[in-house]
Design a protein that fits this description.
Elements lengths: L4 E10 L2 H4 L1 H14 L3 E17 L2 E14 L2 H11 L3 E8 L5 H6 L71
Antiparallel strand pairs: 1-3, 1-4, 2-3
Length: about 180
């Protein structure tokens, strides 16, 4: 049962140039899938979006969605083809055996929802998210804690010797007779 075919979903990411040549991008995906014994079920442009970070000097990308049926070995072969390709930036292949043809045809991009919260629910900029505690407006520690010199000296050790400045002469050792 080595040649058992499975159903896959593949999301191909193309650079900005694919927006002008959409038919070329779709034919590249079709060729990649069919080259590795795949049968394309659904192939369409999913969306064009700004990328979260630059990929191969591209700031925007066009996503092409492909549902196909192929042997399991085709997944790594398609990923290898994408790595060698200059036009395809990335691919993500997942198992889609749970989806029917009607569900595959109905897939559409989801809108990006930017949740704007009222100002009273936003985190206060004066408070950092680390363990140093609250800060004043200048980024320093709060002044309401008082000076550090009012603590009692520790009795379990001798007080420290005063620091010597650099370049100062070393104290002379006392000669014992």
């Amino acid at each position: 049962m080595a040649n058992a075919t499975k159903q896959y979903e593949a999301m191909f990411l193309f650079g900005q140039s694919a927006a002008q040549d959409l038919d070329g991008a779709i034919s590249v995906v079709r060729q990649m899938v069919e080259r590795h014994e795949g049968q394309v079920l659904v192939l369409k442009k999913w969306d064009e979006r700004k990328l979260a970070y630059e990929i191969k000097k591209q700031k925007r990308g066009t996503y092409i969605l492909c549902y196909y049926r192929a042997p399991g070995a085709s997944v790594s072969a398609i990923e290898r083809d994408v790595n060698l390709s200059e036009t395809v930036l990335r691919v993500l292949v997942t198992d889609a055996s749970h989806m029917s043809q009607k569900e595959m045809d109905a897939v559409e991009p989801q809108p990006i929802i930017r949740e704007e919260r009222p100002s009273w629910e936003r985190p206060d900029e004066r408070f950092r998210r680390d363990d140093r505690g609250p800060r004043d407006d200048r980024g320093g520690p709060r002044d309401d804690r008082g000076p550090r010199d009012d603590r009692a000296p520790r009795e379990d050790r001798a007080p420290r010797a005063p620091r010597r400045e650099e370049g100062a002469a070393e104290p002379a050792a006392a000669d014992k007779d």
